[in-house]
Amino acid sequence: MRIFKTESLSVLSIASFRSFIMARFFLTLAVQMQFATIYLQVYYEYTSNELYTGLIGLSEAIPFIFMSFFSGHFSDTKDRRKLIILCILILTVGAIFLFLNSWSATALFKSLGLTALFGSVVVFGIVRAFLSATTHPFMSQLVPRHLYTHSTTWNSTVWHLGAILGPVLSGLLYGYGNGKHAEWCHGLNGIFFLIAAFLIIRIPGVPKQVKQVSESIWESTQVGLRFVFTNKLILSALSLDLFAVLFGGVVAIIPAFTDKILHLGPEAYGLLRTAPAIGAVCMAGIMFIKPPRQKAGMALLFSVALFGAFTILFAFTENYWLAFTCLLLTGAFDNVSVIVRHSIMQLATPDHMRGRVSAVNGIFIGSSNEIGAFESGFAARLMGLIPSIVFGGCMTISVVGIVSLLNPRLKTLNLRTLENQKI
Which of 266, 283, 310, 312 lies deepest, with the highest CB count within 10 Å? Predict the structure, then answer.
């Protein structure tokens, strides 16, 4: 408990870090609320088809992957703080557009229908590529090396708090009074984005990262890719999360599961959608007291395997609260892997490489969320809703076995050893 009172809380004494995690909370809250609203609009207002909800993820993933090959270079060569502010302002404009598109009084915008929703998702995919490559490297500039694991835990906690409240607010506002109030959701998103931008702006002078000006964008990207693919530790951690989220994620088909299996409406969707984030926050509380350091490798492997196991159990539930509990536990164990993975990336990557490595991480993990959403929707149409979820959970467990066989040293990973290494 003494460690919890000193190391875990001492990172909050850094004013810049406090502003950063507050901005992270409002940014996440707005993004999660926005996407939950778009999922609801696509399913309840336009299609009633889970394949289309899967296409939302694919529409974001394609531009995200493409731009991630370049975003890492800009993160390592430009002012990361300014890049983050610019990205948030673009998202604010997008929220205003979605508000106008959803508001019944604006016939011109509303006539765009699905085109406007999917177009906004494409733009967000481009912006998120730069946020993904910039956010974690920027956080690393704000805290000393020995506090990296604790900063990652706090960052993950506020992210999941935003992920909890976002879908809940979306579900409550959207379905208030048995109506469809998407414009309320998108209007509130715009306010949250502006708050996040203000908090980043107020962060005082940040130490400048080392700039690599002699490389072209393509050469710089190749350096980042080569670094990741020759570092077995980073590659193993990324691969575990990639395939777990790609096959085991069920977020995109929760609207269909809520409707067809549980026979409930959008109000019930909000809490179910946010269950994984609630589990993640609960697990973060445990990791504040006992961070996964000395046995980080085993924690990573077991957490991903349990993520897959509870995904399978979720497939067979017909009770709302049992389904909620299964999703809560998937989020709890997923958060262990998230914190270990980001700690590995921070500790094993030089500062002048962090933007490019974060961009590659985004391609592995960030895009897998969206491609996984498409896979979930496609598999649900091809196999059926329940078999597709079981298939995803089984594939996740299989990947754990494969990675542990290919890199047996991962089982002995100790984050304290990495903290003491100079890179």
Answer: 283
Q: Which helix (H) or strand (E) holds 175?
A: none
pLDDT beyond 50 at 59? yes
How many domains does the chain fold into? 1
User: What is the mean predicted confidence (pLDDT) over 53-68?
Assistant: 79
Other beta carbons within 10 angstroms of residue 385's beta carbon come to: 18
Q: Where are the alpha helices (DSSP H) in 105-216?
A: 107-110, 114-140, 148-174, 182-201
- Distance between CA 52 and CA 252 in Å, rounded? 10
Contacts of 31 (CB under 8 A, 6+ apart): 91, 124, 162, 166
**Alpha-carbon span 116 to 95, nearest angstrom:** 11
Q: Confirm if 370 and 125 have CB atoms less than 8 A apart.
A: yes
> C-alpha distances in angstroms, 49 versus 55, 78, 133, 261, 384?
10, 42, 33, 14, 13
**Spatial distance between the Cα atoms of 327 and 321, rounded to a whole number of angstroms:** 10
Question: What CATH number does residue 398 fall under?
Answer: 1.20.1250.20
> What string of H, E and C letters represents the secondary structure of 250-316?
CHHHHHHHHHHCCCCCHHHHHHHHHHHHHHHHHHHHHHHHCCCCCCHHHHHHHHHHHHHHHHHHHHC
Contacts of 3 (CB under 8 A, 6+ apart): 289
Q: Mind listing the pLDDT tens digit for each residue in 154-167? A: 888 888 788 778 88
Contacts of 127 by beta carbon, 8 Å cutoff, 6+ apart? 87, 90, 91, 94
DSSP element (H, E) containing 415:
helix 415-419
Tokens for 28, please give them: 């996440």
* Amino acid of residue 112: L
> pLDDT digit string (tens) for 340-370?
887 887 777 777 777 777 777 777 666 666 6
Q: Dump pLDDT digits (tens) for 10-24.
A: 778 888 989 999 999
CA distances from 304 to 257, 329, 393, 410 (A): 23, 11, 10, 13
pLDDT band, very low/low/confident/very high, at 85 (cuts 50, 70, 90): very high
